[in-house]
Design goal:
The structure is a homodimer. With about 230 residues, the first copy, chain A, is α+β, with helices and mostly antiparallel strands. Chain A is built from seven helices and twelve strands. In chain A, helix 4 packs across helix 5. The structure holds a DNA duplex (30 and 30 nucleotides).
Amino acid sequence: MPLDRSLISSLPAFSGLAGEDMDAILSRARSSRFAKDSEIFAQEEEAKSFFLLLSGHIRVVRTSAEGHQVVARYINEGELFGIAVAMGKTTYPATAFAAVDCVVLSWPNSAWADLQARFPAFGANAYRTIGARLQETQTQVMEMSTQQVEQRIAHALLRIVSQSGRKTSEGIEIDFPITRQDIAEMTGTTLHTVSRLLSAWEDQGIVRGGRQKVTVTDPHALMLVAENRRKKPV
Amino acid sequence: MPLDRSLISSLPAFSGLAGEDMDAILSRARSSRFAKDSEIFAQEEEAKSFFLLLSGHIRVVRTSAEGHQVVARYINEGELFGIAVAMGKTTYPATAFAAVDCVVLSWPNSAWADLQARFPAFGANAYRTIGARLQETQTQVMEMSTQQVEQRIAHALLRIVSQSGRKTSEGIEIDFPITRQDIAEMTGTTLHTVSRLLSAWEDQGIVRGGRQKVTVTDPHALMLVAENRRKKPV
DNA sequence: CGCTGTGTTGAATGCCGTCAACGTCGGTGG
DNA sequence: CCACCGACGTTGACGGCATTCAACACAGCG
């Protein structure tokens, strides 16, 4: 069954493309499902395909030679990922896990050159994605250089809820399961420190914790923390 | 006077291109000189051109809203830089300073789409450059997350000398003036800590310091430090 | 009902940033 | 040529923040 263009027509990765162009691009794609916690591709593995996340959330993890892990980013619905081919790389630079059950489109890498040449807007959007990620990553380096752990965690939480937040009666909740350990690996700290800070913030009514769950109840206060501008409570 | 293709024929950014293609690309470029410490472009400034460094060394600096600076990277001879246009960005994400007197080629951004379409190998090389920088930056995030300051500085020094080292009778010397402060801004630490560590390493015969100068006299020992595998001296 | 993964909290250690003072190099101008 | 001055570098003392170590609580699951 062919994929319908309505799946993708509103996504930024396809902006600037005519309807029949989308059809042509989709005709090369196939759709697959990945169960929660399954692996979509692995670091160092030969890159055979590139992907678009239709629904779900994906955690991208880099592992160092010594076995340390860091969470490079979370992929949201509508984003391209695993686009090693667009960077001229033959292996994936990180591992991608389904944070929840996911549906993804995938294209064989062999289709990239052709699609990119025939539909320049598609290529340009992919390159824009890479550029945006480079800039985000550099921003992360700056934060890690200049900010304390507390500000970094606050920034990370704000970033996640703004990209993957879901409004509830209590506040804005992160839309996928996330552990203290995950947050620690995003911010270069330990789960102990994350737990302590979240507990402190919960006492102050800024967030509400839960098992694999974080809800931001007072985004404004959290922003003050992120900018180190609130007076610390006793 | 037209630019000669011999200037660029051996550079990776032009690999896979025929001689006449290089001429066509060069015909759109102009060459300029920048004095030491002058600014080639500034962060947030509207991106009008992209660049190739023909000779010299360039320091790329990002400044945060609060005024903190980090050195994102050094550009070596033969590398593209300021390629915001290839990432679909309209402003430069960082400031570029000439670390020494420099000669650069520049192209107007308006030439990018055309060059990229006519000479796919040129575009692909630029995208490869961006991909490589994304990966380096992510590696830096990993290092900052998992390693101590000492290992980070050792890694940074090894990276610099491998890319911009010059052999001398004493060892491998960094080929451009670099201050303790610069090294601190590359590694997310303070000039005090850098100074202390370099002094300690000098006592151990691993490096030799100097004003705006660092020479690695024992690269192997420095690598052991980087991997945290040498027994610390008393 | 135990087991595993997750989360919380206390106490102690230590790395490295901060503060401070001084030393040194090199360029500049009298 | 020499004196001065600013940029760069060194070193010591101190302390705070976050990691480390440890113990326990709790939930979900087979």
